Amino acid sequence: xxxxxxxKLISSAIIIRDDRALVFEEKNDVGELKYNLPGGxxxxxxxxxxxxxxEVLEETGMVxxxxxxxxxxxxxxxxNHSVLMYFSVRVAADAVVVLEEGITAQWMTNEDIAELPDxxxxxxxxxxxxxxxxxxxxxxxxxxxxKGGKQFEWQK
Length: 156
Hints:
By secondary structure, this protein is of the alpha+beta class. It has one domain: Nucleoside Triphosphate Pyrophosphohydrolase (Alpha-Beta Complex), CATH 3.90.79. Helices cover 17% and strands 40% of the residues. The protein has three helices and nine strands; from the N terminus they run E-E-E-E-H-E-E-E-H-H-E-E. The strands form two sheets. Strands 1, 2, 3, 4, 5, 6 and 7 form a seven-stranded mixed sheet that branches. Strands 8-9 form a two-stranded antiparallel sheet. Strand 5 and strand 6 form a beta hairpin. The termini are far apart.
């Protein structure tokens, strides 16, 4: 039986402006061009929120504030797995997007997102985006975090 040799924890952000979501197009780990969201791997010692704030700043140049936990997606393959956590975030209305090299992005409506081909989307982004655009959120207790053995309050 195959064993799990690697695992990735990932935090991703949904940024909404004028009823449009910021959607990336970038290459995945195997070089395929995929639609994705700002976010990335959670480093040792980071909470999912720490990683979310860091990754959004690195990839978009914008400072964000976490608003709601939306969805947890687990991908399992023969030799590895990934756990993606999707959050809605707020950025300043006048924040300017400055993309990290290698990323292109566009502000998409719900209709634009629905038309994206499923096989070119990172799994889970379409359903998480739809939740935000329909103003659906999970209760804050849907995600409990600890850091250094102590509860981490991630929502203000």
